[in-house]
Design a protein that fits this description.
heterodimer, A: alpha+beta, 7-stranded antiparallel β-sheet, 16% helix, elongated, B: alpha+beta, 8-stranded mixed β-sheet, 6-stranded antiparallel β-barrel, 12 helices, 20% helix
């Protein structure tokens, strides 16, 4: 087989390398592909000039010094993930045509962990956030990112095809820490959680942006790596906040009351806490206590406090700490195969 | 609801695609087909929650988040993957949607397919999906994996194709859709919403969490519902994989013929009268030629199932029947007490190179240098044949051995076999015929596509001593091959032993994923240096020992000895059992430290002995440093590992 040019050769090489990567360099318009009209090809061509590769800090301790970004204005505003890669005075952006430009950090959003960069260009193709697409579970999507830094120079970023697996709220952690963003995300049926993918674009099959590829995260619920994207509907307001300078670290959504509720106030003694996930069985009930009045008994299993499942004894304590002692709290217990839900009040 | 959703999708497609070619009719059709199929089962897919339980299982962190289950009857029976309940929770709940939580009871477990049956009282008929039997599946057909791990109201999905209809010895079907804790316990659907199987993590090893490491890998498994025996489970009856007791030689891999190598007398097949040497030609009406086919036919069957076996013995076909069982006593090897020497080319038989003191052979007046030529009237040409004969015999069984001393007339002795796992055997070196001093060469072993460096110390071949090999896993990181060579070299010379020292890929730790690399090094060394395959051991210190235990237990056909120096086994090793064909002995070397490590080692010594493995323990004085390895004693233990 003879290749018309270098990028074509790289294209075929990359296809051979891994079938789940479909890098399509923008210069690849001729022979083989164009002869059999393929419409996905046109969509990719319309999206690729809107993608940029970002290079910055990192390179040590196996931390990659690169990620991906999306142009969101013709004059060079770039949406990407807020990460250590941007933590450098020397962040460079490479456009799809291979031009390398110095980028300025406009600002970042601490909750969504997104950042805006600015480069000096004019009339560059961009994603119009006002005309953004939407998705449902089952929607077919395309994912554009420079995963593993495979694309270099003017090579277009890699494209993956997938399906929206679910819409959910993010409950994930980085190391032992819960993530700051707990809002809605698309879970993707494609392996998009890769080094360098963060800041990539998720589009519908017409090339309309529907979300931004998030950073590598493990689910705190299932302990497995998540492939997810932050939906455009969440991104718009956050971008406005960054541009107007009103994006600030907000305190955690749960404000702990000064005088919280406790098991003791309710008259409940649970079984000793011996495991990481000790089941919250009631050991004793104080006479004339709120728990006694609610009819709770020893051996009842607490399964819900203030509307949330309590998988462990620690979780019961944690949930009560978020309830003011003067407020009512609903607690559900399991007795045999029966659920008993009661509203308890200290005074 | 279905049509409404379609309209939404259609509208979005029209608006969004207005200035782009109408390219994607096929995509749009595919989207709606997938969404409709999922819609059909949404009411039958449930979310499962748990309260309480363990947070680590077999050394892995297990999450406590919601998982998935599937309704299988109108009166509230639900199946799920045992992975989802592996933490042994205090309570289990089932949710059809965000606002309906029901307590669930565990009714029974299917240990063969890693499935649990739950019962929920909902007071109403629960919608049941339609199921397709395995016979109607086609490899390559489009499939959808469905879970409810994220949201009880709306399922999550992953699409792919059916990759195989017969996996894990006939138990499972396979898909390339992304299978993970997000959909374990959920259904695998076809495009019409029919259930093809229940998604489970499976692996050839049996454990609740085995196979879960492979999530999202393109290799996912599902077990067909009609093979779960839901009627039996609903009566509270636990199901186990069925065991027969038949063992085959593995040395020809998948081509091994279906000739029984061992069949303990206390196993179902042994009791029914099947004997080593019988050639199995049919099981339950299915004809077969190879040993793997026997495993494939028996694999999906359960304990209690009847099996009909047609076999050939002495050229005549015969038939027998037996019932598979859930558990079998471990195989305990019998021993005469002789250490075989190198097979001579001009004289048939097995030269006695060493004698175990006070063993049946020693007491029967067999001496060093004698040549065993027959056992129970059957000629033995070499030590391999004698070893194959020995695994067909039981402890305390009486045997008659014919042997030749120098050029005397052959003599017969009769004695009862002793157990191989008898108390620690201390053999003085003058009780074996030692080899002559030889020259040792340092060689580097290269395994294709593996970056790890690996060295071997190879003595020149001896005429008296069969060659052994010890692969030793030291501390992770770079290896000083010259210094290590000095420590092992004298032993290599004296015992005709090849010592192999690999480096870990990661400089700070041995990674369990390197087990395959280590096994390939062993395999290549055995071939390249002409090692007697019955004298091959792996061992290691501390974390290297943990790694060695993974290699030994996962490559049983390759490894005959395991040495653990100040190390317990990997926590992932469960339910290992001594077998006739893959004989394995274990040596623990322990510096008393009075720590948790000691207690774990003690537990493992006990556990392995109970599982039928011959286990020896060398206790070193408390003050011994971790870096002091009693190499002489380890190599001596290894030198008589092939005793018969």
């Amino acid at each position: 087989m003879r290749f018309a040019n270098t990028s074509q050769a790289i294209y075929f090489f990359a296809i051979g390398l891994a079938s789940w990567l479909v890098p399509v360099p923008p210069t690849l318009v001729q022979p083989a592909v164009a002869q059999s009209p393929n419409d996905i090809h046109q969509v990719l061509q319309s999206v690729q000039p809107k993608m940029v590769k970002i290079f910055g800090a990192g390179g040590l301790n196996r931390l990659e010094a690169y990620q991906t970004g999306c142009l969101i204005s013709g004059d060079g505003l770039i949406l990407t993930s807020w990460s250590y890669v941007l933590d450098s005075d020397d962040v460079a952006v490479m456009l799809s045509d291979g031009r390398r430009l110095v980028a300025e950090l406009v600002g970042f959003h601490p909750q969504l962990e997104i950042a805006l960069l600015k480069i000096d260009v004019a009339e560059q193709p961009f994603f119009d956030l006002d005309a953004a697409g939407s998705a449902n579970s089952g929607t077919r999507v395309l994912v554009f990112s420079n995963l593993y830094g495979i694309a270099t120079g003017n090579e277009a970023v890699s494209v993956q095809r997938g399906v929206v697996a679910a819409k959910t709220k993010l409950a994930a952690r980085r190391g032992a820490m819960e993530t700051a963003y707990q809002g809605p995300v698309w879970i993707l049926d494609a392996i998009t959680s890769n080094p360098g993918s963060a800041g990539g674009a998720v589009t519908d099959r017409h090339g309309q942006l529907i979300g931004l590829v998030g950073k590598e995260l493990r689910s705190s619920q299932s302990n497995v790596w998540l492939n997810y994207a932050i939906p455009v509907s969440e991104l718009g307001p956050a971008i406005d906040e960054v541009l107007t300078g009103s994006a600030r670290s907000r305190p955690a959504t749960l404000v702990t009351p000064d005088e919280p509720m406790s098991l003791e106030l309710l008259g409940i003694v649970l079984v000793p806490n011996v495991l990481a996930r000790t089941p919250p069985f009631i050991d004793q009930i104080a006479p004339d206590s709120p728990a006694a009045r609610a009819g709770f008994r020893p051996d009842d299993l607490i399964i819900e406090v203030a509307g949330a499942l309590t998988p462990s004894r620690n979780e019961v304590t944690r949930r009560l700490e978020n309830v003011d002692r003067d407020s009512a709290v609903t607690i559900t217990v399991q007795r045999g195969q029966q659920f008993i839900k009661q509203t308890l009040r200290v005074n | 609801m279905v049509s409404l959703r379609l309209i939404v999708v259609f509208t979005v497609a029209c608006v969004a695609g207005r200035d782009l070619p109408a390219q994607t009719d096929a995509d749009s059709w595919a989207e709606s087909v997938v969404q409709r199929a999922v819609e059909r089962v949404t009411a039958s897919v449930v979310q499962i929650e748990t309260v309480g339980g363990l947070d680590r299982i077999e050394g892995r962190q297990v999450a406590a988040g919601p998982t998935t289950g599937l309704v299988v009857s109108e009166d509230g029976y639900v199946v799920t993957s045992s992975f989802n309940l592996s933490q042994q929770p205090a309570a289990v709940f089932v949710k059809w949607n965000a606002n309906s939580r029901y307590p669930a009871e565990i009714v029974a477990r299917n240990h063969s397919r890693q499935v649990v049956l739950l019962k929920v009282e909902t007071g109403r008929a629960t919608p049941v999906p339609s199921f397709l039997p395995r016979a109607e599946l086609r490899v390559g057909q489009s499939v959808i994996a469905v879970g409810k791990a994220f949201d009880a109201d709306s399922p999550n999905l992953s699409t792919g194709i059916l990759s195989a209809t017969n996996r894990i010895w006939g138990k499972a079907i396979q898909t390339d859709a992304k299978i993970s804790p997000h959909n374990f316990g959920g259904p695998l659907l076809d495009l019409e919403g029919n259930v093809l199987g229940l998604l489970v993590p499976l692996s050839p090893q049996q454990s609740d969490v085995a196979g879960s490491d492979w999530y999202d890998s393109g290799i996912g498994f599902a077990v067909p519902l009609d093979e779960l025996r839901l009627d039996q489970l609903s009566r509270g009856q636990d199901l186990h994989a069925g065991l027969s007791g038949i063992e085959f030689r593995q040395d020809r891999g998948y081509a091994s013929p279906a000739i029984v190598a061992a069949c303990p007398i206390n196993s179902p097949a042994g009791q029914a009268g099947l004997k080593p040497g019988d050639n199995i030609i049919r099981i339950n009406q299915a004809s077969l030629q190879r040993a793997t086919q026997v495993r494939q036919i028996l694999g999906p069957l359960y304990a209690g199932d009847e099996v009909e076996v047609v076999y050939q013995r002495d050229g005549k076909a015969a038939e027998l029947k037996f019932q598979l069982v859930a558990a079998m006593p471990p195989f305990r090897h019998a021993m005469m007490g002789i250490v075989p020497g190198v097979t001579s080319e001009d004289k048939a038989g097995v030269v006695v190179r060493g004698l175990i003191p006070d063993s049946p052979a020693a007491r029967a007046d067999i001496r060093l240098g004698d040549r065993v030529i027959e056992i129970n009237g059957a000629a033995v040409a070499n030590s391999l044949e004698l070893a194959e004969r020995m695994i067909t015999l039981a402890i305390s069984e009486s045997v008659t051995v014919k042997f030749v001393r120098q050029d005397d007339q052959p003599r017969d002795v009769t004695f009862e076999l002793a157990p191989l796992h008898a108390e620690a055997v201390e053999l003085e070196s003058d009780e074996t015929l030692a080899g002559a001093a030889t020259e040792v060469k340092l060689t580097e072993i290269k395994i294709p596509e593996q970056p790890n460096r690996c060295f071997a110390f190879v003595p020149s071949q001896s005429a008296e001593l069969p060659r052994g090999a010890l692969l030793w896993l030291g501390p992770p990181g770079k290896l000083d091959e010259v210094a290590s060579g000095k420590r092992w070299q004298p032993l290599c010379e004296k015992y005709n032993l090849v010592v192999i020292l690999p480096e870990s890929r990661n400089p700070t730790a041995w990674d369990s994923s390197e087990a395959d690399f280590v096994a390939r090094v062993v395999q290549q060394s055995v071939r390249q240096f002409d090692v007697d395959p019955r004298r091959v051991a792996v061992g290691g210190s501390v974390s290297g020992g943990v790694m060695a235990s993974i290699v030994a237990m996962n490559y049983r056909d390759l490894i005959r000895g395991l040495v653990l120096h100040n190390s317990a086994m990997s926590e992932r090793i469960k339910d290992v059992k001594s077998t006739a064909v893959d004989r394995l002995m274990v040596l623990f070397v322990v510096n008393k430290s009075e720590t948790a490590r000691d207690r774990r080692i003690e537990r493992h010594v006990q556990q392995l002995s109970n599982s039928g493995f011959p286990v020896h323990l060398i206790n070193q004085p408390a003050a011994t440093s971790d870096s002091e390895i009693p190499r002489q004693r380890i190599v001596h233990w290894l030198d008589i590992i092939d005793r018969l």
